[in-house]
Amino acid sequence: THFGFRDVPVGEKQKLVGEVFSSVAGKYDLMNDAMSLGIHRVWKRWFVATAQVRKGDRVLDLAGGTGDIAALLKDRVGDAGEIVLGDINGEMLRVGRDRMTDRGNVRGFEYVQCNAQYLPFPDASFDLVTIAFGLRNVTDKDMALREMLRVLRPGGQARVLEFSEVQAEWFKPIYDFHSFKVLPKLGKLFAGDSDSYQYLAESIRKHPPQAQLKAMMEAAGFDRCEFRNLTGGIVAAHTGYKV
Ligand code: SAM
């Protein structure tokens, strides 16, 4: 297909995840705004603004979905740069490409349907690799992190933006109420689908918290690993470099 589809092992959980995102692809952007009160836009802007990237760079945005991160990255790499948007789900890629065209972004983008665990790219082929709100859905996260390191050039940066562990004790019950009571209702209201949003809340709770993800990045072989909490730890941005 025009996405440059490569045949890669997908697996049962991955198929399920794929279906979850197929069912929400069209409503995905609206839901993000509703669930986070628009704050996800601020997180994403900060994430891209603070990434190590220059004009003319080649960047891989994994689990790129509908392309929020890719569009922001394009401004940073400029006309000479190139963004590869990789996602396991063809429907999300299709919506992403349409959105990108609507934003007037056509040149300098490539869309590749791929599993983060099996990247169809040569070693050292990117200056920066990002994954935003995607690692949580990957079955073998260690494997995906190793793949991110492999395709990165020496000196390049990898960045992970993901839901994490809320830090303040007083905020935890409020956050739980929002996640398990409000979210599924919003999902039903906007997307006619509460199950996908129940899955979302659960996947956030199961995702490794800040220190653990940092240790996983170190174990994968990344250098100078660090993280920063955003909005009290609702989200954290992890960074690592390839030596
Ligand atoms: N990065 C986008 C953003 O921040 O708006 C999209 C995030 S969306 C919550 C998660 C995306 O991860 C979905 O588009 C889904 O298809 C993709 N995904 C899930 N598992 C994946 C995997 N193993 N490899 C690549 N992409 C995956």
TrEMBL record:
Signal peptide stretch: none
Enzyme class: transferase
Reactions accelerated catalytically: a 2-methoxy-6-(all-trans-polyprenyl)benzene-1,4-diol + S-adenosyl-L-methionine = a 5-methoxy-2-methyl-3-(all-trans-polyprenyl)benzene-1,4-diol + S-adenosyl-L-homocysteine + H(+); a 2-demethylmenaquinol + S-adenosyl-L-methionine = a menaquinol + S-adenosyl-L-homocysteine + H(+)
A GO term for molecular function: demethylmenaquinone methyltransferase activity
Keywords attached to this entry: Menaquinone biosynthesis, Methyltransferase, S-adenosyl-L-methionine, Transferase, Ubiquinone biosynthesis
GO BP term (any one): methylation
Record-listed E.C. numbers: 2.1.1.163, 2.1.1.201
PROSITE patterns: SAM_MT_UBIE (PS51608), UBIE_1 (PS01183), UBIE_2 (PS01184)
Residues holding S-adenosyl-L-methionine: T66, D87, N115, A116
S-adenosyl-L-methionine among keywords: yes
Family matches, as InterPro entries: SAM-dependent_MTases_sf, UbiE/COQ5_MeTrFase, UbiE/COQ5_MeTrFase_CS
Biochemical pathway: Cofactor biosynthesis; ubiquinone biosynthesis; Quinol/quinone metabolism; menaquinone biosynthesis; menaquinol from 1,4-dihydroxy-2-naphthoate: step 2/2
Pfam family, one: Ubie_methyltran
HAMAP family xref list: MenG_UbiE_methyltr
Family: Belongs to the class I-like SAM-binding methyltransferase superfamily. MenG/UbiE family.
Functional note: Methyltransferase required for the conversion of demethylmenaquinol (DMKH2) to menaquinol (MKH2) and the conversion of 2-polyprenyl-6-methoxy-1,4-benzoquinol (DDMQH2) to 2-polyprenyl-3-methyl-6-methoxy-1,4-benzoquinol (DMQH2).
Name of the protein in its database record: Ubiquinone/menaquinone biosynthesis C-methyltransferase UbiE
Gene giving rise to this polypeptide: ubiE
